[in-house]
Amino acid sequence: MHCDHTASAEQLVDIAEQRCRELGVRFTPIRRRVFELVSDTPGGLKAYELLDRLSTEHASARPPTVYRALDFLMEQGLVHRIESQNAFVACPCPEPRPDHHGGFQLMICRACGRVEEMHRLEVTALMSQLVAEHGYTLERQTVELVGLCPDCRSAA
Amino acid sequence: MHCDHTASAEQLVDIAEQRCRELGVRFTPIRRRVFELVSDTPGGLKAYELLDRLSTEHASARPPTVYRALDFLMEQGLVHRIESQNAFVACPCPEPRPDHHGGFQLMICRACGRVEEMHRLEVTALMSQLVAEHGYTLERQTVELVGLCPDCRSAA
DNA sequence: ACCAGTGACGCAATAGTATACCACTTCGCC
DNA sequence: GGCGAAGTGGTATACTATTGCGTCACTGGT
Ligand SMILES: [Zn+2]
Ligand SMILES: [Zn+2]
Ligand SMILES: [Zn+2]
Ligand SMILES: [Zn+2]
């Protein structure tokens, strides 16, 4: 039920490559590099920060370059968008599943920017029930929880 | 526990005015008009749409004009931001409370754009528990649920 | 090996969202 | 009336994201 989310950035890249092969989609050098950069940044990366870093080694990079790569990675469920911050974070799951795609929760430290991802079925269940009470169906959930992480809390 | 959310736009404006008086903050003509425009739009309004509408009657309106008004209204809890859409929606609560401020959930129809607001304590409780298990504190939650409303579902 | 079809990329322009800054006015208070 | 704080006008700019089009590279079938 819980996957462990302890994979290193390198491991995530290997897993992503493997996964793309299985799905028959192309993990091109640009996509790979973008995924590496996002994976290396625990707090998530803004698109133009990403562009800056990518530019240093890939001079022809432009906004569409990074947005296209991010769109691809999001479609594969390898990267998620943090809506409340216009930022992008790598999915830490070693084995992203389809049901996970629209059903994860992010926990964000407002002090240090750490982001942790959860995918708790109870949350999805509660949300489904909630919307059902109003006659809605649930297709996608955005859940972003902002607070203080243990480290920052004890520092304060 | 549940407030009814059936107030008309006019009623919401009156309530907001009353509320600002109580709090000792100024419900200026610009702020009032922005709140009216947002309240009149059930699916929420984008900032520049709002600017367009405001401009027709208030020629000197500029982006800062509307963002300042929106910031004020959000501080008072009269308007919420829909993070996943860069849009703003009026809080339908006749009596917004402080605990409500960071603890509401939005249900959004992807077909017609309707937005309904809920503030269910069970959700906040579950989120608090969830983050507590990871040692975090919870200060603010963004919960946006996208799906089909009853009308759009039966139409499909 | 050849070719057509598709998808990825390079590149320029533009659309859309939000803030910084400074001057001036209005308000509430003394 | 004088004062400080808050609100507004106005300009500029920063930040975020998409469109459109031409070209190139990979893929699959022949
Ligand atoms: Zn996971
Ligand atoms: Zn922290
Ligand atoms: Zn309410
Ligand atoms: Zn609908």
Automatic annotation (TrEMBL), chains A, B:
GO terms for molecular function: DNA-binding transcription factor activity; transcription cis-regulatory region binding; zinc ion binding. Fe cation binds at H100. One of its GO terms (cellular component) is cytosol. Its cofactor is Zn(2+); Mn(2+); Fe(2+). Zn(2+) binds at C109, C112, C149, C152. It is found in: Cytoplasm. Binds 1 zinc ion per subunit. Binds 1 Mn(2+) or Fe(2+) ion per subunit. Keywords: Cytoplasm, DNA-binding, Iron, Metal-binding, Repressor, Transcription, Transcription regulation, Zinc. It comes from the Bacteria. InterPro entries: FUR, Fur_C, WH-like_DNA-bd_sf, WH_DNA-bd_sf. GO terms for biological process: negative regulation of DNA-templated transcription; regulation of secondary metabolite biosynthetic process. Belongs to the Fur family. PANTHER family: ZINC UPTAKE REGULATION PROTEIN. Homodimer. This is Ferric uptake regulation protein. It comes from Halotalea alkalilenta. The gene is fur.
